[in-house]
Amino acid sequence: MLLTWRHLNIELFNTVKGFVSIVKNPSNTESVFDIEDGLMNADATKLSVEYVKQNPAVAQIIQERYIAPPPDIELLLKYPENSLGYIYASYLLETGFDPNFYRKLTVKDNTNYILLRLRQTHDIWHLVTGFGTDVVGELGLQAFVLAQTRRPMSVVLIAGGLLKILLQYPTDLENLLDCIALGYRMGAKAKPFLAQKWEENWKKTLSEWREELGVEPTTVYIP
């Protein structure tokens, strides 16, 4: 029991420490991963897993443990310019983002798999929804993720972002709230992103993806 409580205290400490860091700097990805790792065994995380598994298509991909290899940027740039693959590769080059930026997880159970898949496809979700990578756009996307997955990390990020805006940039609060509301409505309406094998359909156009998934992209960022 002592070891169990010690482990839980370490997780709680990492979560709180990460939250404080997020409020100070919402773009600190290491803090994001610290918080999420700390929440790995939380009841909210378990409920999130059960929630997404209610959708048969998501349950199937979880059971399959589908994981795509790292994207070949040079190959994707040879696809049609309106394809998801080309737009994704161009987006990474333009922003300087590393597609393998995320903290790796060993897939031992459904929770590990879901979190790894969310991390692996994060930038794809940005492109398909149209949400940018600034603080407002990121929190809009997190609201979308929350609607689709009930992911606890999304709640933490939204809470941290709201607190930061409220304390430091209160005139931006209305814009942020609008973006969060928009993201949640979009996520509730769209088909499950977790069920998609994006990497097997790079040649499909971005417009086709959006139409199939029922997404009307925000104007925060549209490639």
Structural commentary:
The protein has 223 residues and is mainly α. It has one domain. 65% of the residues lie in helices and 0% in strands. It contains twelve helices and no strands. The chain has helices at residues 2-24, 29-38, 43-53, 56-64, 73-76, 84-95, 110-120, 122-129, 135-149, 152-168, 173-189, 206-213. α10 (152-168) runs antiparallel to α11 (173-189). It is globular. The protein starts with a helix and ends in a 10-residue tail after the last helix. Mean pLDDT is 86; it is low at 1-13 and 15-20.
Give the arrangement of secondary structure elements.
Layout: H1 2-24, H2 29-38, H3 43-53, H4 56-64, H5 73-76, H6 84-95, H7 110-120, H8 122-129, H9 135-149, H10 152-168, H11 173-189, H12 206-213
Specify the oligomeric state. single chain
Assign the structural class, choosing from mainly alpha, mainly beta, alpha/beta, alpha+beta, or little secondary structure.
Answer: mainly alpha
The shape is globular
Parts with pLDDT < 50 across at least 5 consecutive residues: 1-13, 15-20
Strand content range: under 5%
Distance between the termini: 53 Å
Instruction: Give the topology string: H per helix, E per strand.
Output: HHHHHHHHHHHH
Domain tally: 1
Number of strand segments: 0
**Residue-averaged pLDDT:** 86
Main sheet record = none
Can you give the helix content as a percent range?
A: 55-70%
Taking all Cα atoms into account, the compactness measure Rg is: 17 Å
Number of helices: 12
